[in-house]
Amino acid sequence: MEAENYTVLSQFLLLGLSDNPKLQPVLFGLFLSMYLVTVLGNMLIILAVSSDSHLHTPMYFFLSNLSLTDICFISTTVPKMLMNIQAQSKDISYKECLIQVYFFLTFLGVDNFLLTVMAYDRFVAICHPLNYTVIMNSRLCVLLVLMSWLIMFWVSPIHIVLMKRLTFSTGTKIPHFFCEVAQLLKVASSDTFINIIFLYVSTALLGMIPMTGILFSYSQIVYSLMKMSSIESKYKAFSTCGSHLCVVSLFYGIALGVYLSSAVAHSPQGSTIASVMYTVVTPMLNPFIYSLRNKDVKGALGRLLSRSVSHL
To answer: Which residues cross the membrane (predicted)?
Structure first.
């Protein structure tokens, strides 16, 4: 087929998770439920943190930003998929696809940086407790969050500029439920060498640098805990890291699983299903992990719900 540049026209076809018509209502109900649970759970975290003065600390400031990013992250992909299932359509315009790529990469990267910032916060709290309020002042906290956003606002447009150089055949099918960069590069008709190089370099830098920061922070935390004589002090100090460790393990564990599955899978369907884990499941589980493992968050949520019920 003749290659056509989609900066001028038309649309892609998102193949989604299944072509079976009988499964479409099930997928619609499942993903709608997961989406609503994710938005509600993360909104409750944000409301609890903002309404409770006990949670006006750097740790919960970063947590509320993580919750906001998770809402934006899942809203980039799932609503379009639900609309397509409901309309019995697979279409997504070229412009919508690029917008989806841009925001997906941005929110994924900000999530990554926020987890690193939260690890640094725990490092300062445990290793330098006397200087914690001085080091983690409000100005630094806001600056760290802004830097996370600014980095991704600069990196994501480069992907878009490189994508606009590519050509695609008429009626290009994307074997995914959203416009995922790697899948788009596979179905492009033109040379994608530069795109692939930039994708690997940016992924390596934006993945390895934050992961190194997290590993360094926790190595210092473990070293500080080993020097503590009291078991109770060790448990109390490390318990503040429990929720963050669970989220980090989930985020990087699933991301690694998706990478390995895409590398060894013979069918795109396997990679697509694996992608559901980090695009949908991880943002949904984060508020549960923090609310179930954190007494302060549970207390704030209880007070928030009590106030809401009393006003009814």
So the answer is: 26-48, 60-79, 99-120, 140-162, 193-216, 237-260, 272-292
Cβ atoms of residues 221 and 127 within 8 Å: yes
Q: Which residues pair with 169 in a beta bridge?
A: 3
Extract the runs of DSSP E, i.e. beta strands, from the chain.
Answer: 3-4, 11-14, 91-93, 168-169, 173-174
3-state class (DSSP) for residue 4: strand
CB distance 115 to 248 below 8 Å: yes
pLDDT tens for each residue of 5-43: 444 446 899 988 888 888 999 999 999 999 999 999 999
CB < 8 Å & 24+ apart, contacts of 83-89: 84/14, 84/16, 85/16, 85/24, 85/27, 85/28, 86/28, 88/24
Give dist(CA 135, CA 149) in Å, integer. Answer: 21
At 99, which amino acid appears? I
Q: Which two tokens stand for residue 53?
A: 């003065």
Name the nearest CA neighbour of 151 among 109, 203, 197. Answer: 109
What is the number of other CB atoms lying within 10 angstroms of the CB of residue 302? Answer: 11
CA distance 260 to 20: 27
User: Domains in the chain and their CATH numbers?
Assistant: 10-310 (1.20.1070.10)
CA distance 157 to 182: 16
Report the alpha-carbon distance of residue 268 to residue 273 in Å, rounded: 9
Residues 134-171: tens digit of each pLDDT: 999 999 999 999 999 999 999 999 999 999 999 888 77
* Predicted model pTM: 0.90
Residue type, 8: V
